[in-house]
Every structure is written in structure tokens, then in C-alpha cells.
# Entry
Amino acid sequence: MDTTTLAEVSGNVATIGYGLAATGPGIGLGILIGKTIEGMSRQPEVAGQLRATMFIGVAFVEVLALLGLVTGFLFT
Amino acid sequence: MANLALGAAMTATTELAADDGDTTGFFGWLFYSDGFHAPTVEEFFPPAIFGEGTIFEFNRIMLARVIAAAVLILIFWLVARKAKVVPTRGQSVVEMLLDFVRTQIVEQVMDKHNAKRFLPFLTTLFLAILAFNITGVIPFINIAGTSLIGLPIIMALWVYVLYLGVGVKQHGLGGYLKLSLFPPGVPKGIYVLLTPIEFLQVFILRPATLALRLAANMMAGHLLLVLCFAATQYFFFEAAGAMKAMGTVTFAAGFAFTLFEIFVAALQAYVFVMLSAVYINMAIEEEH
# Structure
């Protein structure tokens, strides 16, 4: 039985790693920012405080995605 | 970006001559490609201007840092030299920046007394990071001074030493360790889990993530811009037929990402200073 190759993918499978690494933080950011907006619309008078707290949280979540980016360069 | 694109163009041209590829047929003409080369991490190790091989090696990124620092000092020297009670236009812009750090960052986190104490340090940090970040989108410099990890590490270590220092000064060595490693208000058994986590947090993860976040953001931003503009150059001048139209898309994306990078430069300066203020405040605040 002879096989015919119709399509071929070449390259390193590790390149999909960053995509995987970004999913978790993506979900996290969605929840985090969504909840902040919810809080802001419920209580607009504390919007500034919520925004400041949100940015601290965003910084923590974001660093996970960035670790994924950095490991892509480290383990090639 | 101009010289980068030029470099990419040169490599692309030589490869075009070397590798003709399959250009026969309609689809061959439509989707012909000699293989576009995406930017790599080599971007951040440009050739030395002088002092190659020594520890004083001076390259484009160092030059960007020197320019950013000089411009920052120049602006503040010019403004402070003839500061008036009724500010001129330039002075009011600078005052707006200083006021932003005070009211929007530091006083949001600390009480008035502590805010006054740490404001000079945090303002310096904010303005320095902003200046070093913004060089990433200035034409003909086009690389952020903070995109190599060295400078962020220095800044993070500065914050690290400061918050450990003020913590120990405030509570004494034992008091500070007890406060940060054994946070009050949890059942005794939980400390088995909590203390190692807190130790990692306070002594390793905080400074490491501060430095890494800034450097990785600037690095990612720069790579994104290089990718967009190198692709634009490639599509317009190297690619065949219908692929040329893709160049407009990548150019628009490059333009949009440039605007986004300006936002990121300011946001990262804000986040870095905000977290520094939070860490310092955690070190000095009383038990509660």
C-alpha cells in the first residue's frame, strides 16, 4: 500500500506552547476585568480604587503569560 | 525601525537570489514566497558601537538608555531652572506627571505621612521607567532601554533592598520576619503550607516578577513591532502578486501596535511603581 502525502507540517511543536500558556491568563484576565467592571457599574464612586486594585491583579496574572513567552526563548 | 527593515530587506534579497523556489503556474505566482524570516531574540544583541568583547561594550540599547536619561534630566533641568508659581505650558505638563504619581499611585496605596516619605523615590522610578520604555517607539531609536533584563533587575533590586530595609527598620529583624512569614489570623496548622509560600513570595518572587514583567513586556512589544514592519517591507518589496496587498494589513497592524506600545510603556511604568508602593506599604504597615 503506498501512501500519498497531501499536506505536511514542519517545524517545532514547542511553538504552540505560548498559545497554551496564554489560555490560563486569558481566562483569568477576563474574569478579573469583567468583575471589576461589574463592581464599577454597581458602585461608580469607588471606580478609581477598583481600577487601581485591578491593575495590581492584572500585573500578577499577566506575569504568567509572560513567563510562557520567556520560556519560549529560553528552551528553544 | 528603518535600519531594521533595511537589514531584513538585505537578507531577503540575497535569499531571493539564492533560492528561486517553485514559481511556476498561477498559484505559484500568487503565493510565491522565499521564506520570510521572523525576528529572533538576536534583535536584543545588536552589534557593538565600541568596546566590543569588554564589559563596557556599548551598543544601540545602551545608546538608547543614555539618550533617554539625558533627555529626562534635560527636561527637568529646563523646567526646574525657572519654575514659577503660575506655571507655563511646559511646566504644567511636568507638574501633571508629578501630580499623577502622587495622587493616583502613591496616595492610593499609602497614608499621607508615608506617601510623603517615599514619594521622591517612587516618582524617580516612574519617570525613569517611562523614559526608558518610551524609547521603544521613538523613531530612529526604536528599542526600549528596559528591553534587556539588566536595567529592570537593577530597579527591582533597588525596590527589594528598600522594602526589606524599611521593614526591618520598622519592626526589627525578628518582627519583620514574623510579620511576613507568619501572617496573623490563620489557624496554626496552616503555617506549614503558608510559610514556604510566603517566603518564596517575599524574598524571591516579588523582585523577580517585577524585573521580568517589565523586561518581557518591552521585549514582546519590540518583537511585535519588528515582526509587523519587517513583514510589511517583505510583502511590498519581496512577495509576489496578490500577497503584496497583505502589506497594507501588516502596516496597519504595525501602526496600531505602535500606539498600543505607547500605552504599554505608560502602563508598565504605572504597574511597576504601583507594585513597589504596595510592597513598601506591606513592609511598613502595622499588624492588623
User: Anything to note?
Assistant: Chain B has one domain: 2-19+59-284.
